[in-house]
Amino acid sequence: METAYSCDTGLLRALNEDTVLCTRLDLETHLGVISAGLFTVADGMGGHNAGEVASDLATRTFHVECISRLLDRPAAPPLSILSDAFSKANRSVLEAASDRDLQGMGTTLTAALVIGSDMFVAHIGDSRCYIINERETIQVTKDHSVVQQLVDAGIVTSEEAKTHPRKNEITRVLGYSEDAAPDLHHIKLYAGDQILLCTDGLCGVLATEKISETVRSSNNLNQSCIELTAQAYLAGGPDNISVVIVKPDNLPSWHALITAHTTLRTV
Q1: CB–CB of 218/233 below 8 Å?
Q2: Confidence tier at 156 by pLDDT (50, 70, 90)
Q3: CA–CA separation, 29 vs 117, rounded Å?
Q4: Most C-beta atoms within 10 A of its C-beta, which of 28, 46, 55, 246?
Q5: Contact 154, 76 (CB under 8 A)
Q6: How far lies 232's CA from each of 81, 192, 257, in Å?
Q7: Strand order in the sheet with 137-139
Q8: 78: domain range?
């Protein structure tokens, strides 16, 4: 499983309030040892250095809880583990925010747990998870934002949302409420799939097509991260820029799957 990441302050911010964490591990299962990985990006917000504290605290709490639960025997279902870890991360931020200097802090958090050919995603806020391959680009997550609600309601178009005056207003984050349930997804991965996690310092300034084109055109994950960060700089670099790219190995072939399904239908 190849992995690369970048976490950059950008051009206009004095402080980097994003947090990125990548963890690789081998899990013992009834099918033998399976390669796994846990990857997150978080974009903190709040006065002074509170955003930095929120994203770091939430990320570390989430990872410790997830890894601990994954190593349990028997392990709970992956989506249950992610959901519970989000709840614990949320509580940790809420409790820390009782400090007068940290009041009002919060953070987005987007996490991908990859176990073999399965990806489990938990998400809250406006950071994103994509699957990119030669066939298509899939935005797995949906932004929890005012402009996304306006797009869903048909009030503005996706193009208009990019420059909407309320585009930075987030409707759900960790640390603002006891009720901060993440969106959960279970997705099958196939040969050629690359997973990209990013904060809005990247996806907020670069079109999805530009992001996917950059990833597809490079065979080097580190170079992809460097190029994406450089492109965000050229677009003004108004926010912190964080990106994680994961390329799992030993995945089933998409073409073999199509052939198998076709054969089943014609028998």
Answers
A1: no
A2: confident
A3: 14
A4: 55
A5: no
A6: 34, 25, 37
A7: 2-8, 241-247, 194-198, 128-132, 137-139
A8: 2-266
- pLDDT tens string 28-81: 777 778 889 999 999 999 866 799 999 999 999 999 999 999 988 888 999 999
> 108 with 174: CB under 8 angstroms?
yes
Question: If we measure between CA atoms, which residue out of 139, 118, 137 comes closest to residue 128?
Answer: 139
Pairwise CA distance, residues 53 & 73, whole Å: 33
Token duo for residue 121:
């995603």
Query: What does R_g of the chain's alpha carbons equal in angstroms?
Result: 19
**Exposed, middle or buried by CB within 10 Å (0-12, 13-18, 19+), for 50?**
buried
Residue 224 sits in a domain of what CATH number?
A: 3.60.40.10
Amino acid at 19: T
Count of domains in the chain?
1
CA atoms within 13 A on the CB side of 20: 22
Nearest CA among 163, 29, 45 for reference residue 107: 45
